[in-house]
Amino acid sequence: MSADPAPEKACPVAPVVDVVFSRWTTPILWVLHYEGPQRFVELQRRITTITPKVLTERLRQLERDGLITRTYYPEVPPRVVYEISELGSSLAPLFAALADWSVNLGKVDQARRAYDTEKQTGRKR
After folding, report:
1. Which of 18, 38, 78, 82 is least surrounded by CB atoms within 10 angstroms?
2. CB burial string 65-95: b at 16+ within 10 A, e below
């Protein structure tokens, strides 16, 4: 029996992580889920550290993946609204579980400090 080197065989959540947890995907989906439909500038104001170029790229990828929808309104001036799709909304329980887990971030910080101290001093904990 040979081992299959494909990461999705070793860890079936790896492809999910690739789709959902790229650098800007999670904040975009979070805003669209909790704040509702948004125009480009509204998303940019809510996610202040993202550049317009990267936001455009991520929105296109999310639309391609079926996680958001883009609605174009042929008005003067034209209006485009982004909204989380039904598929994207199905991630809500996952986001809620991660938000619940975030209470552990203090423990992560403690572990990091202890690790860094150990590496600097050469002493074991």
Report:
1. 78
2. eebbbeeeeeeeeeeeebebbeebeebeeee
